[in-house]
Amino acid sequence: MTSSMKSILTYFDAGALSAPRLEAATAIATAFDAHLSVLACGYEPAIPPVPYANTPDAFDFYQNYIAEAAAEAEKQGKKAEAALAAAGILSDVETLARTPGDFATALATRAQFADLVVLSPPYGSDKASVATEAFESALFEGDAPVLVIGEGQSVPSGGVAVIAYDGGREALRAVRGATPFLKAAQTVEICVVGASADREERATMLAQQLSRLDVAVELRVDPGGDATIGDTLARRVRETGADLLVMGGYAHSRLREYVVGGATRSIAAAPPMPTLFAH
């Protein structure tokens, strides 16, 4: 398990959650004496906007939109640089003018070389949002731990952390990515929802492994009942007063979770506390 966090990644654009997202990433970088990399973004249209797509002037209109996206990226980059300079942390800002899909690809590439990616909740009324593409690209193609912080939430501060453990690979990878936070926590609870004997045995092994890192760890088996796993975890976070939830992301397919629901999607859409996912 990695015990250090030295490379953190986030992005900054004209969205309403950019400032709190950057503040959260800055606070984490400060706490761990880490380097923060920021992608400052302006978004190009994927195709010339209607009604210009099929006109003789389509190329000119498209070039104008590209120029506007580049100018927006520079504008956001300057804002990010000013905030980082005030914070006095190790950092760099890279400006990108891309389509949302190409931006997500660029983010995923950089996420492969980050210890943590800090993002905003990815799901809401707009299922095709930049936030959705950023989250799924960082999680899958980026293969990175992703910390989702909701609006108004504070970064983990060394209180109680809850691990949602289902015995799967994704949950264990999330624990590995969260190790620096877990080592800083006063107490870590491994919460197993609807446990089987095999799952409890694995959870006991995980508790033993964490205890060797001097983590104060407790194991709890929650029957769950009729509530969904997402609702059970949200309740447990409230009961413990946790400031961090750690869980695997998409142990089931994205399509299945989209159609029938699932813990990843429900928690990521409205995280009860900052939540670290890994796939």
Automatic annotation (TrEMBL):
Transmembrane segments: none annotated. It comes from the Bacteria. Belongs to the universal stress protein A family. Signal peptide: none annotated. It comes from Pikeienuella piscinae. This is Universal stress protein.
